[in-house]
Write a structure and sequence with these properties.
48% of the residues lie in helices and 10% in strands. It is mostly helical and 192 residues long. A two-stranded antiparallel ribbon has the order 1-2. The protein has a two-stranded parallel ribbon with strand order 3-4. α1 runs antiparallel to α4 and α8 packs antiparallel against α9.
Length: 192
Amino acid sequence: DGDSALNNVKFRQAVLLAIDTKASLKAYGDKAIEAKMFYGNTIDGVDCALSCKTSKKESKTVLKEIYPDGNIPNVSIDIEESELQKSLADTAKKELAGVGIPSTITVHDSADWANVLARGEISLFRFGWVSEVPISSDSLVDNYKASSNDNLSGVVDTALEKKIENYEKAATIKSKVENSNKIQERIKELHL
């Protein structure tokens, strides 16, 4: 959505700074292992320290800079129908409220999730897509390549397409690792 407040990278940063990843992961119980890196094919990683940190103070500073009148837009947290997703969303809602970001939780039927995405109704996130849980670059390619049938992200980016093309052409593990890191970094630039 071109009019979304989430188009502003600083607002996205304020949102991410407000959400305590460790507290959110507690909702997973023993189902999640906190990772320190974003992984591709389990052999390469991009340090996520800058993207994964929590700082309520920094979040409030960024919000004051971009919304000096205090009129902070509402964020919709889109989730699937499940107790775990609801628990995570409730945690995120509280974290956002703690820095002054109002939010609304919208629950979608899991069976209709692809249709909801295709209609462009998702505003913030679906838990599990942007997380500290390791993912491979092959799935990133499927989810972000403009021509992929599995691209539900809606992202079309020339720089990302070039990085994906280089990743797919890579003939050595070293080259795959280097290009995987570049894909992950570009995706972080687009979303964080």
